[in-house]
Write a structure and sequence with these properties.
Order of helices and strands of chain B: EEEHEEHEHHHEHEHEEHHH
Helix content of chain B: 25-40%
Largest sheet of chain B: 6 strands, mixed
Helix content of chain A: over 70%
Number of helices of chain B: 10
Structural class of chain B: alpha/beta
Radius of gyration of chain A: 22 Å
Strand content of chain A: under 5%
Number of domains of chain A: 1
Number of strands of chain B: 10
Distance between the termini of chain A: 54 Å
Number of strands of chain A: 0
Radius of gyration of chain B: 20 Å
Largest sheet of chain A: none
Oligomer: heterodimer
Largest interface: A-B, 16 and 21 residues
């Protein structure tokens, strides 16, 4: 009997702990949004962080995009040629990237490249009392440190996803047209005809913005909430990557269900 | 906002209690620090010295009693009033807490850029003057990672005094420094305090260094002030605690051994 009670207590404790943390994270997001005025008045603060989060993620995003596109070209051709519709390769590559792979894979890469770096940096600033020092200098660390990083992530993510998709289409073109010999005219013209701006591109952009908010929110919160020790910061960095990856995949399912209901 | 009648005291701590969860840290601390003085608060690690500094800086609120700076109760200030007060305070953290993503120059310029509209040319002059005062004008381009511990502490000192604060707080300014750097930091604390007409509070357990530069010393143990006096008075004190602390004796009112079972029984029981 006592074992059952302690099991239930443990279960309840975990559940309320998770809800408590979610509530804390939500208040933190609200506080970040409330204190965002300064980073739009001094936009150079955000630009600096866009360099660290966005520009420095470019290599991994572009190279991954190219390879994902090339693999899509190979696999897509292999399947389409069985039905004699290899000229639709461009459509397949473009739609896969713009609707799904662009936002999702770029989001996952962004979480592991930039999200982990943001968490580690903020966590270490906290552990070395830099945030406390800033507060004692009458500068709010949420406005000066957190908000610029948050907005930099939100701005960078859709741009990175777009570049990932563009690079992927180019990779599909290299393999499909240049290597295998699919007709270049039908590759591009069918793509142009089939990809709809609102249905496909805009929905893809919406996804990448949502992923950008989610990943950066998780990254700044985990950093700010990290216990100020070496293990604390390393644990927070791992949690950022794991939580934001799972969040991206779950959100992707929900968004896809709303956006593409067999229309 | 109730304002106490002006006194000669810049900081007044009035019967302050403070606890982290159920652990009582401060149990009715009283102290008064006169303007212009350099005062040391001494005690063993974990006796509540740093907590006291955080209470004065408004980072924590007392559970009982009142902390007043310039006659105003710190815990009753609104967020904006507290930030306005903090612009007149400086705090040197234990390991400097320099911003690691900025050069020494930008660290010192940080508050000037955040809180004033001074043109960059004027900031440039001010930063170089602040760094010259701590002897590191030549190092203004270096990043914090390129500095030794003593140099980082001096840059942090320049940053702390960037806006000419009326109150400067030092959290263990001598910790982890070599003897030469310790002497330098001690002299700088005194010189900067007198040059700025400021008031300084040093929290430390470094007796020899601190006694050379301060006007007044408070001893803390177990959450209360147990002794107060000038350095000369404390050196001559025959109070057992002060004597043990000032002369660094191994055993006394502060026991060397952590409370434990009988030594012989522990050895023979084989359970430890």
């Amino acid at each position: 009997m006592t074992a059952v009670i302690s099991f239930l207590e443990d279960l309840g404790g975990r559940a309320t702990g998770a809800i408590h943390r979610l509530g804390f994270a939500s208040r933190f997001l609200l506080l970040t949004l409330q204190n965002s005025g300064m980073c739009f008045r001094r936009f150079s603060l955000v630009v600096r962080e866009i360099y660290f989060a966005g520009v420095q993620s470019l290599i991994i995003i572009l190279v991954s995009g190219l390879f994902v596109g090339m693999v899509l070209g190979l696999q897509g051709y292999d399947t389409l040629v069985r039905y004699g519709s290899s000229s639709a390769l461009g459509v397949l590559v473009a739609l896969s990237l713009v609707r799904e792979l662009g936002p999702v894979v770029a989001g996952l890469l962004f979480a592991s490249r930039a999200g982990s770096a943001i968490t580690a940096e903020i966590g270490l600033m906290k552990a070395t009392e830099q945030l406390a020092a800033m507060e004692m200098m009458a500068v709010d660390p949420i406005a000066r440190v957190i908000a610029p990083r948050f907005w930099a992530g939100v701005i960078s993510m859709p741009l990175l996803a777009a570049m990932f998709s563009a690079m992927g289409v180019f990779g599909g073109y290299l393999v499909g047209v240049r290597l295998i010999g699919v007709d270049e005219g039908s590759f591009w013209s069918q793509m142009q005809a089939a990809v709809d701006f609102q249905e496909d591109i805009l929905n893809g952009v919406i996804k990448s913005v949502v992923f950008g908010v989610a990943v950066t929110w998780i990254a700044v919160f985990e950093g700010y909430d990290a216990p100020p020790t070496a293990e604390g910061v390393s644990g927070a960095t791992t949690r950022t990557v794991v939580t934001s990856s799972l969040t991206i995949l779950a959100l992707d399912f929900m968004l896809t269900a709303f956006m593409f209901r067999g229309a | 906002m109730p304002t106490k009648p002006a006194t000669d005291n810049l900081v007044e701590v009035d019967n302050v209690n403070f606890a982290y969860d159920s652990r009582q840290i401060l149990k009715g601390v009283n102290l008064a620090i006169r303007r212009g003085q350099v005062v040391a608060i001494m005690g063993l690690s974990g006796c509540g010295k740093t907590t006291l500094l955080r209470l004065i800086g408004g980072a924590l609120r007392p559970a009982g009693g009142e902390v007043r700076v310039g006659g105003r109760a710190v815990a009753k200030l609104s967020h904006d009033e507290l930030f306005a007060l903090r612009r007149k305070m400086g705090m040197l953290f234990q390991f400097g807490a320099l911003f690691t993503d900025m050069s020494c120059y930008d660290n010192v310029a940080f508050q000037m850029r955040e809180h004033t509209d001074l043109p960059e040319e004027l900031i440039d002059d001010l930063v170089l003057m602040k760094l010259q005062a701590v002897g590191l004008r030549g190092a203004h381009r270096l990043m914090p990672s390129e500095l030794s511990g003593g140099m980082a502490r001096r840059v942090a000192l320049a940053r702390t005094t960037a806006l000419d604060p009326m109150l400067i707080m030092y959290d263990e300014p001598f910790a982890g420094l070599d003897p030469v750097s310790m002497g330098v930091i001690g002299q700088l604390i005194r010189r900067l305090n007198d040059a700025l007409g400021a008031t300084s509070i040093i929290v430390t357990h470094d007796v020899a260094e601190a006694l050379q530069v301060v006007d007044d010393v408070y001893f803390m143990a177990d959450g209360v002030i147990i002794a107060r006096g000038t350095p000369a008075e404390l050196r001559a004190s025959d109070k057992p605690f002060v004597h043990q602390f000032v002369h660094g004796e191994m055993d006394g009112p502060m026991p060397f051994h952590y409370p434990a079972e009988d030594y012989g029984r522990d050895l023979y029981s084989g359970e430890a």
